[in-house]
């Protein structure tokens, strides 16, 4: 794949990511004003979307054989396990309906949400670095191929 083709593909992926972030921001802006049922629907939809994205990402990473892909698959698996445990704990705690327990649960959920955003930010920074590095290496490979001819 030529450098410009890869750069175009990576740019498209980042554009899609940007669109998802904008959509997420819009969801957050309307979430606090939503009634209980609408909020439940938003949460269920976000949960399903996250599950789908995680599964797609895991399947994609599983196809890769290099060391970075294996590491990333491990990170994804660990994150999926963490999120699953958090969701299980939330569901268990919700059943108790104790105000103090719900307050602690809300604080923990808010902390987990902040951590997830931080993780996404770090993942984006790493992705940008990897994309730019790949473009640089492809450019060098193209130049070396041109010199060899």
What does this structure look like?
By secondary structure, the protein is mostly helical. The protein has one domain. The protein is 92% helix and 0% strand. The chain is built from 4 helices and no strands. It has helices at 3-31, 36-63, 67-96, 99-148. The longest helix has 50 residues, at 99-148. The radius of gyration is 20 Å and the shape is elongated. The two termini are 18 Å apart.
Q: Percentage of helical residues?
A: over 70%
Q: What is the strand tally?
A: 0
Structure classification: mainly alpha
Low-confidence stretches: none
- Bulk shape: elongated
Question: What is the terminal separation in angstroms?
Answer: 18 Å
Q: Report mean pLDDT, rounded to a whole number.
A: 80
Taken together, the total number of domains comes to 1
Please, how many helices? 4
Order of helices and strands: HHHH
Note the main sheet. Answer: none
State which percent range the strand residues make up. under 5%
- Cα-atom Rg, whole angstroms? 20 Å
């Amino acid at each position: 794949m030529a450098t410009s083709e890869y750069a175009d593909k990576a740019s498209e992926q980042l554009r899609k990511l940007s669109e998802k972030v904008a959509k997420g921001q819009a969801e957050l802006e309307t979430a606090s004003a939503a009634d209980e049922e609408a909020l439940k629907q938003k949460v269920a939809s976000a949960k399903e979307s996250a599950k789908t994205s995680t599964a797609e990402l895991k399947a994609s990473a599983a196809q890769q054989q290099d060391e970075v892909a294996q590491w990333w698959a491990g990170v994804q698996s660990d994150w999926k396990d963490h999120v699953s445990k958090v969701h299980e704990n939330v569901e268990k705690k919700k059943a108790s309906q104790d105000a103090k327990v719900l307050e602690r649960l809300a604080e923990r959920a808010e902390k987990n949400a902040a951590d997830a955003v931080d993780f996404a930010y770090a993942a984006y920074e790493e992705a940008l670095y990897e994309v730019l590095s790949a473009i640089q290496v492809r450019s060098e490979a193209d130049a070396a191929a041109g010199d060899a001819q």
